[in-house]
Protein 1
Amino acid sequence: MLSMLSLSTPLLFSLATFPNRVIYNTLATAVVCSSNCFGESPISLLERCKSMYHLKQIHSHTVKIGLSSDPLFQNQVIVFCCAHQSGDMDYARQVFDTIPHPTAFIWNTMIKGYSRINRPENGVSMYLFMLANGIKPDRYTFPFLLKGFNSDMALQHGKMLLNHAVKHGFDSNLFVQKAFIHMFSLCGLVDLAYKVFYMGDAWEVVTWNIMLSGYNRVKQFKKSKKLFNEMEKRGVLPNSVTLVLMLSAFSKLKDLDGGKNIFKYIKEGIVEPNLILENALIDMFSSCGEMDAAQGVFDNMKARDVISWTCIVTGFANVGQIDLARKYFDQMPERDYVSWTAMIDGYLRMNRFIEVLALFREMQMSNVKPDEFTMVSILTACAHLGALELGEWVKTYIDKNSIKNDTFVGNALIDMYFKCGNVGRANTVFKEMRQKDKFTWT
């Protein structure tokens, strides 16, 4: 029986119609067993497949025995190639091109696969090819397509795809709307994001957070405040992410009243405090010069990290309490380059240039690598002290340690050389700078 089935396989599978997957798998298993290669159906093998190498072996065998054109098998191959971490989109496309009439599911799977590997341009091409073949998008098409977008793709295709979504009746679909809001917000196109946001009227807190985050990302903090006020009026309760976003906005705006309103949600037990939220509170109070309140939050924390300590150090340094800032700095269990730079900048603002250089030496001994902002502070201290030799050493240090030498650093070097009386070196740095701003020329 098996040998007869094996001999007539191509004819059998081309003429038979399978009422369900059980019959297909039964026949396929018989064929595969008769070929003495595998002991189970190709579908079952694909479900346990863990690499493209194995998938290609299975696929190659099914081609030989005449099963490779079965829709169920083709779907499984494409799903693996598109979704598995070792998948191969080029191989998926080869299989896709052999399917006479791909379903919307397969089109969406291909689009999702391109987004997964950050090839959104291929996803858009696939989407347009889908439309050209008379297949309409469904509620999954746009979310899959938009997930891989960057700013350039959003600018180039965002409006067109939004118009398509509206045309196909998805302007009131929350799932699709949220995908557009998220994409536009991440890509900095917050006006378009708000346009989509305004279409809906029953947003949960996560979607409000996406909009707030979008405004913060492009530094439109007043719009964040306005949107949060609207959120409160609608009776939508914030969560800890909302509060962190708003504390960040109020910190930048130096809006103490707004920050206190956020603090109210924590004090009244509406939102449970956590480390990130408490750090944001310290930062907000510090930015507004309310160090007693910042210190109160800091002292009552159950756990602190390097950000907590850096916020309190920066806060005291910013209000001129440099010795208190140093006291907290010395108590830090661990320090990163941000902590060191915050303390160095504090001394710099107080014109305590000797301490700037002394602290930088300590930083070097701690094996924490400075960044370009640290080096600008050190160069500024050298300029004020007229320490040309040390400034030259800093220049060499920047070059040897591959520290980003941008316009900011270049301006500091020019300033240091001029103040130390070495006009020739200042001119050399000026000529070597690839980008210059108004401070470079002055």
Protein 2
Amino acid sequence: MQLPEWLSLTCFSFTFTNIRLTFAFLVLSSSGQAKGKFYVSIKSPKRRLNSV
């Protein structure tokens, strides 16, 4: 069964965001100093996704 294009795109972006969040969480756990930088790098692509 083939998914509609918008649905597969939504699934892809959710998966991509989850991977990014998981990766960032792992990095944050190992080094608390990078916290500010990673918050910025997570939020900006997310904002771009939402505005599309």
Protein 3
Amino acid sequence: MSELGLLNEQSAVRRIVLGDVRLTYVVDGAMALTAGGFFPAVPGEYWRAHPEAVDAEGRIAMSAGGLLVERDGRKLLVDAGLGPYRGDLSVGEEPFGGADSGAMPEVLAELGVAPEDIDAVAFTHLHVDHVGWAFKDGRKFFPNARYLVAAEEWAPHEHGITVPGVIAEMTVVPMRGNHELIREGEEVWPGVRAVVTPGHTPGHSSFIVDSGVGRIIAFGDAFHAPAQITHPEWGSRPDTDSDGVLKARTRLLGGVGAARHSRLRHPLRRPGLRSCGAGRGRGADLAAGRRGVRPGDASVALGR
């Protein structure tokens, strides 16, 4: 469990090096989610037994962002954060917290990376908190990047848009004609293999980064909290298929095959920059949550 850390651990931008691969979690912003609202399957006694996992108001501090994978001068981004947004989060009409985001471009700049430098963006799924910086004003924010989406994730939209208007405008509409479909087991980037792990969404995907000396599994929203590592049956409110989520988690916890040196990477920590030489500009302040999360300024729905 020490590999995963605590949900309220002070860390946002983090970097590890495995062989010739450098991986950096790039924070986009802060999220504060109500424990009971976002994790309805987790019994109340769990939170009482683990006060370190929540704040005084019973909220879990998380972050939105993406995983930057660098190898041989090339750059892959797994997910693109929530984008410039401040307000409530909900599933349908059910609110479960708030977010304050939009720091990803500035954090990337502080890491010496421009949008034009990204060669590919692989999306674990098409929820708005994972595609937020994919497009700006209808254009690709990462202009030189291939946008990679699992065929199973795109299938529901192949012959029509199946999500509410505001969500479609942010995700599906601009993605049409601007993406490439990827398949189970496909090497989508040098040393990075796609594994379709449906359940959270129909085509939710995880990505195995193999450096030759170790493997990292970027699992997106297959897990939302360390509690789900030990209790994979505990679902999250945005999950679309609870049985599918359990199967996906079981597969990931098994290392997706013979993965003796694999590690699950869990990016859900309290936002706060303190590593990688990141500066203290507006992007760093936002990533560190300096503006605070004040639900009520706006509202966006995740999931169904």
